[in-house]
Amino acid sequence: MEIIRTVEKLREAVSSARAAGKTIGLVPTMGALHAGHRSLVDRARRENDIVVVSVFVNPTQFNNPDDLRTYPRTEEADAAILADAGVDYAFMPTAEEVYPEPDTREFDLGPVAAVMEGAMRPGHFNGVAQIVSKLFAWAQPTRAYFGEKDFQQIAVIRRMAELEGFDLDIVSCPIVREADGLALSSRNVRLNEQARAIAPKIREVLLASVDLKAQGYEADETARLTTDAINNIDGLEAEYFQIVDARTMQPVSRWSDAGDLGTVGCATVYCGGVRLIDNITYPA
Fold it and tell me: What is the residue-wise DSSP string for 46-101?
């Protein structure tokens, strides 16, 4: 595996691969890699000739300076994981390399970016669009891989790719979980022992919401009851729980309001001061 620090070197590497007719799989990450990231890399390895993984904590998508400051950075361990996974190129640039001057672009991301994370974290998705559009332009991937834990983010990236005219496949990959159900996240390392014991209850409540649907509750009532259930657990506080159309990300009141992709329940929950996200898909 080659570690690349500059945009110029990355462009050279992928241009040579594309000239040779090879497919390129890109896995954008912010580092602090875990088994969830490894699942994305493994899929990219199976489906492409060349695999590029970016490791970059992107400052433009953090609207909370403390969150940016405390985000885990484990470059040496990340490099070892990527080498073991058979990655061809690990792109590990500095912020100055990625942003030699401020990125002032504003993306018209539309309704998919206006709700949930978009409402709670102003500017977050525009920052995501900035960095991912740069990576798409530099790496010229055939396919790019993203985890479904960040369900809304995938919809936003699809919208950005459409706006910018990128010709690639955006591949969504299933959530990877701990044995107790907690969705893998780089933020989990910030959970203290007590919070770590409580955090899996998020998944339990989401699974219980599926039963509420089966019992005949409509989507809006299911969302209200699920929010209450989260908040009734000592140590958990829901920032939001919304049941949305899986394509548009817009909240639905009735299950029948959803379109062809059905409904997803999206949760953001504080546990021990750590902001965790998860989601669940509802059967038709």
Answer: HH-SEEEEEE---GGG-S-HHHHHHS---HHHHHHHHHHTT-SEEE---HHHH-SS
Q: Are 150 and 279 in contact (CB under 8 A)?
A: no
Q: Report the predicted TM-score, pTM, of the whole model to 2 decimal places.
A: 0.96
Catalytic site residue 37?
A: yes
- Express each pLDDT in 206-242 by its tens digit: 999 999 999 999 999 999 999 999 999 999 999 999 9
Domains of the chain: 2-173 (3.40.50.620), 186-281 (3.30.1300.10)
- Residue 232, classified by CB atoms within 10 Å of its CB into exposed (0-12), middle (13-18) or buried (19+), is exposed
Say how far apart CA 201 and CA 283 lie, in whole Å.
21
Measured in whole angstroms, the distance separating CA 95 from the mean position of its chain's CA atoms is: 20
Per residue in 24-54, pLDDT (tens digit) is 999 999 999 999 999 999 999 999 999 999 9
Q: In the chain, what is the greatest distance between 2 CA atoms, to the nearest angstrom?
A: 58
Tell me whether residue 54 is exposed, middle or buried, using C-beta atoms within 10 angstroms of its C-beta: 0 to 12, 13 to 18, 19 or more.
buried
Facing residues of 274 across strands?
271
Q: Annotated catalytic residue: which of 24, 27, 29, 37?
A: 37
DSSP at 283: P
